[in-house]
Automatic annotation (TrEMBL):
Pfam entry (one): SCO1-SenC
Membership in a protein family: Belongs to the SCO1/2 family.
Protein's recorded name: SCO family protein
CDD domains, per database record: SCO (cd02968)
Source species: Paracoccus rhizosphaerae
Source organism, top-level taxon: Bacteria
Length: 208
């Protein structure tokens, strides 16, 4: 009988701890307007992504991060000489923006190069225009591009040891959702589908 009482007390205590933990998590998430939309869990949270910057837009103008992120944005890091991944991802991101436009929502797309040596503003303009008239291309100095990539934890490496002209660049392929003011709220892997991305973006826009 004593053992039964101990078991019941232990079970009740465990339930209490679980209930308390659930309440604590609910209270913690209650202050987050995007809690129901976030699909990504990363160390440090999404607030750890991003940085202020000044880069060169594909029309040759110098722009700040505040000027770029003046509306909801899909942000992607790639390069124009990329043979396969970057064109596919850029086309998908442009499709997501088109879906949102059909739904009456505004979503811009931004392409930041990881290959500033070859990706001049003119090269970026020709490249982004293949996917959307509204896609923004950004480049800068080697140091500026390195700082921006570091801000979004984006790994990249040019394989140019043997060829300084036709080299490839290793890089990550996440697409980030950045809200006005430069607040990164989520990211999408390269296998994310346009419709699913649009639904997720819509959730964030509705919660804003």
């Amino acid at each position: 009988m004593a053992d039964r009482k101990i078991l019941l007390i232990g079970t009740a205590a465990a339930v209490g701890v679980l209930a308390g933990g659930a309440l604590f998590l609910t209270q913690q998430r209650a202050g987050d307007p995007y809690a129901q939309c976030t699909g990504s869990a990363v160390a440090g949270g999404m607030d750890s992504f991003g940085t202020e910057f000044t880069l060169t837009r594909d029309d040759g103008q110098r722009v700040t991060s505040a000027e770029v992120f003046n509306q909801p944005t899909l942000l992607y890091f790639g390069y124009t000489f990329c043979p396969d991944v970057c064109p596919l991802d850029s086309a998908r991101n442009a499709e997501v923006a088109a879906i949102m436009e059909d739904r009456g929502e505004t979503l811009q797309t931004v392409f930041v190069t990881v290959d500033p040596r070859r990706d001049t503003p003119e090269v970026l303009a020709d490249y982004t225009d293949m996917f959307s008239d509204d896609m923004i291309g950004l480049t800068g100095s080697e140091q500026e591009i390195a700082a921006v990539n570091q801000g979004w934890r984006n790994y990249y490496k040019a394989n140019d040891e043997d060829d300084q002209e036709y080299y490839l660049v290793d890089h990550m392929t996440n697409t980030y959702l950045v809200m006005p003011g430069g607040h990164t709220v989520d990211y999408f892997p390269r296998d994310a589908l346009p419709g699913d991305m649009a639904d997720s973006v819509g959730c964030f826009l509705d919660a804003t």
